[in-house]
Amino acid sequence: MSHAMAGVQDVRNQLFINGRFVPAESGETLASINPHDNSVITEVAMAGKADIDKAVAAAEKALPAWSRLAAMDRGRILLRLADLIERDGEELARLESIDTGHPIRDTRHLDVPRTAVTFRYFGGMADKFQGEQIPVEAGFLNYTLREPVGVVGQVVPWNFPLMFTSWKMAPALAAGNCVVMKPAEITPLTSLRMAELMAEAGMPDGVVNVLPGLGAVAGQYIAEHPRIAKVAFTGSTATGRRVVQASAGNLKKVQLELGGKGANIVFEDASLDAAVNGAAFAIFHNQGQACIAGSRLMLHEKIADAFLDRFIPLARSIRMGNPLDMATEMGPLTSALHRDRVLSYVDVARGEGGEVLAGGKAPAGALGGGCYVEPTVVRVRSWKDRVAQEEVFGPFVSVITFRNDEEAMQIANGTEYGLGGGLWTNNLQRAHKFAREMKSGMVWINCYKRVNPGSPFGGVGVSGYGREMGFDAMREYTQVKSVWVNVDANLPPYFRR
Ligand code: NAD
Q: Ligand 1 centre from 186 Cα, in Å?
């Protein structure tokens, strides 16, 4: 399906450097594919090292004026951008749907509004984030300045490209940094459109640069670059490790949002209907391609059968189809490569003695030509099995039963990941105990996957470090300078002559 047929008029497919769209120096391009039918949407320029160098130079040039602009004026541009995102919301939603496979009901009602809200939140934050005055010894004034880090590199994955562009850019820009951003090579279209909207909002040339490119080339070079002061990375844990190693050259600041294997625990006293629905949202929203997906569904043995009696029919009834159709609840996975990877885990599960209770294959019929995978529910033999430990990143949930709270805690914390997790219970004491003791950056009680620009987002363990959103994000994108002033201290000479 062409983008015009999908109701999208303008598709930008070049690199955005210094306020202009330009081809890659090498002339290289990569096809951006619509995963619904594997048709080519457009050929997108792929940045190499020379292009990244140009973007870094543009960002360095823009930095002094941008960082010294009144914070309120930086905020004003982000607020204007939020309005423009809403103005063009329908087109952005359609573009995101054809590039990623997200159902339009989500891109319209979740991704686009959340993107606008994130820029609005940080636009408002720009002039409210401040340093401190420290009560030190008499005679001195000590205060802190919160200074931008400088030119920051940002590397974004393909699962929520539009939303993650806002999560990364909004705090960085509010704090006065300049940005060189690389979207994932397979989903660059909405980030490029955003760059255009930024220019329209009044962003000075060079402050924001968006360069699609291959991870191993452009992403790696951003992580290595000697004149990039910080790299913020969202992606897999394996790539996160590479980013840390590459960053060592100039000891750049690193922020990592990596993989997860979210425990979603349903206790025997939970309200079952709410838990069933919440658990389905936790794993099947966005085809399970979410770092915080509730991919380990932990059921108390007393309610496991009753829960599955409702959950399995619900999973089977999820409407898969063209992402542009408002009735569609689950679209295709974002690429054919990824679909095959997800399906390979069904074989792993069977090999481990897991029982496939629903799905486990690509759908038959017309959708079989796209990158679709049926909502898949697998009862695992042990919580230590590979499919209960490794991130599948698809519509694939591993069901684990437990006998009591102690066992639930052991299983929940029995993974090297620690991003998000949820629990369903009406026992207040238990809820807070688990919230405190789960090794996880985020915990949801009687809900799952709630996010808000004011609420810190990030993980522990191999899920990464640093936090997006809220004041924490502003701290990540600034460095502290401590200033000492002798107001009226009488300093005796240290060297008496
Ligand atoms: P990925 O690690 O393969 O790629 C992420 C990005 O890194 C892409 O832009 C890619 O081009 C780039 N990249 C690849 N190799 C690189 C290298 N050597 N140096 C620098 N950059 C490189 O991940 P993915 O498959 O695109 O995304 C899925 C992963 O992202 C999952 O593991 C998921 O859990 C994780 N994720 C985490 C969060 C979070 O906030 N914690 C959010 C979304 C996704």
A: 12
How far, in Å, from the CA of 462 to the mean position of ligand 1? 13
List C-alpha distances in Å: 297 to 282, 300, 401.
9, 10, 8
- Whole-angstrom CA distances from 25 to 28, 47, 54, 129, 211 are 8, 8, 10, 39, 12
Quick check: 372 pLDDT over 70? yes
- Architecture in CATH for domain 15-258+459-482: 3-Layer(aba) Sandwich (3.40)
Please state whether the predicted TM-score (pTM) of the whole model is above 0.90. Answer: yes
User: In this structure, which CATH number among 3.90.1150.10, 3.40.50.970, 3.40.1080.10, 3.40.309.10 belongs to the domain 263-445?
Assistant: 3.40.309.10
Rounded distance, CA 471 to CA 481, Å?
A: 17
CA distance 170 to 129: 13
Tell which atom from ligand 1 comes closest to the C-alpha of 257: 41
pLDDT in tens, 53-73: 999 999 999 999 999 999 999
Contact 34, 217 (CB under 8 A): no
Domains 15-258+459-482 and 263-445 are alike in CATH topology: no
pLDDT digits (tens, 9 = 90+) for 382-420: 999 999 999 999 999 999 999 999 999 999 999 999 999
| Residues 107 and 328 sit within 8 Å (Cβ to Cβ) | no
pLDDT value, residue 6: 78
Domain boundaries, given as residue ranges, for the chain: 15-258+459-482, 263-445
* pLDDT per position as a tens digit, 114-158: 999 999 999 999 999 999 999 999 999 999 999 999 999 999 999
**C-alpha distance from residue 43 to each of 27, 123, 437 (Å):** 11, 33, 48
* Residue 355 annotated to the active site: no
Counted residue by residue, the chain has a size of 497
Q: Cα–Cα distance between 123 and 349 in angstroms, integer?
A: 46
Provide the residue type at 345 as one letter.
Answer: Y
Structure tokens at 21: 């769209």
List phi, psi (to 5°) of 370: -100, -165
| Partner residues linked to 257 by β-bridges | 234, 464
Residues paired with residue 355 on neighbouring β-strands, in sequence order? 379
The confidence band for 368, taking pLDDT boundaries of 50, 70 and 90, is confident
Q: Which amino acid is at 151?
A: V
User: Which pLDDT value is given to residue 321?
Assistant: 97
Which one is catalytic: 257, 374, 468, 476? 257
